[in-house]
Fold these 2 entries.
Entry 1:
Amino acid sequence: MLYAAAVSVALSTEPGDEVLQAREDRPVVRHGDQVRHPRNPWSESVQSLLAYLAEAGFAEAPRPGGVVGDHDDVSYIEGISGDEACTLVQSDEAVAEVAQLLRRYHDTVEAWQPDEEPVWFDGRRGTGSLPGELVCHGDPGPWNLVWDLCRPVGEQLVGLIDWEYASVGTRLTDIGYALHYLAPLRDRSYWHGVLGMARKPRRRHRMAVFAEAYGVRLDEDLVEAVVASQQAGVQMMIDLAALGRPRQVQLIAAGELEREQRAVDWTERHRHKFSLAGVTVAPDA
């Protein structure tokens, strides 16, 4: 069962607070060294996850600040994130850093067994009961990465933020989502308009870089995971909008559902170009 949500949320602000996100359904405010989000039924579970990660030494996740009244807080991570961060994943080195961070997270969270059963945004519970299941970040797109460009190349990725979509899945759930936007398996409007790439990406090569850095095989299962991630994103938008979730309702009204469906259709049309099926591998898409 998926949770419903209120139509709009208001967060109280104080002098000196910085509005990081002004969305009506999910305003986000920086309050000193804390980032304040609206409280949700799964906020305590996210806080519990972040507390475990902090204790386990996973330094790239925000530290939990607690749930108080109508909001929850996490620590602010200094660096470049959001739209600007999307332009920082063009190089092989950046793709490898993302893969290594995701591998460290998965290796860390795999052992998490909290005393109280967590409940996630999609109504799922626990940390996984089937072989290979764990708690995924759920939204490891380039906009949720934090970079510190003052560090040496290979050490610039310092944060993975926005854990509201954490839920139970497998490693391939997060990997497929990440590669959907990193390869990316989307058309020019994304790789040029969002990632800022001047030339068409070598998608299979970028998938291979990610796979090697994470430590998985670049095979048909990996390709299928990316396709499944695209399809799951479309279905989730439909499901959450049907429940009245303001964000998804607004996205559909703005044409986002059609854009995401076009991304799925694009992948289906071009899949043979980056698929590994068969003896001969076709030129890159």
Note: The chain has two domains: 18-75, 83-274.
Entry 2:
Amino acid sequence: MIKHLKKRFDELLTQANEVAATKQAKYSQHSGHYEQVDTDLLLGWCVKTRNLLASACGKESEHFKAFVKAEEPSFYEENPTRLSRLRAVFLAAKEDFEGGYLSSVRNLVQAEVFSTELEQARELLNAGYRIPAAVICGVVLETNLRSLCEAHSLSLGKLDKMNADLAKVGQYNSLVQKRITALAAIRNSAAHGNSAEFDDANVRSMIEEVEKLVADWLS
């Protein structure tokens, strides 16, 4: 996803330059002499860029809001001026995205890492290694709980404590808290090598549930 969004930033930068290259001198009796870029190309670029910023930065980000604001034309403003203003916002978003300064980027990177680890857990389970599969899945779960605690300025500790603290501050409800406790029990059994306390179906369900929890937390 990171590579896909970066590629799209590069494509739209090229397209912005192509729009700018259509600038022509115009004249009308009402406006006199003025300059204009292709209005259809400009509109298309704005729509595509707004969509990219919503995906890469989020609709609540300063980048998205600034771009939407910059789209509003001023009285008697020539559209090359508007394009220049929009391009400046776009370049700022591109720089922050590629520099990893956006929370959305960190979430995407984290999601890709956890997706890889959970896929590894699935492969281990399919190969008959349910103990390491459960351990890896448990690590993903605990790592996410730690991140949530840090986001809520909660102290870090054992999984059960972090789970309880997060429920108290409303990160999730008591039903989710109880389910996390059950998932942690499988992780603990696996960490102690007690394979008789859980089976393949338990681990498969554990992987699916952790995957859903992580997706919800990072969205």
Note: The chain has a mean pLDDT of 87.
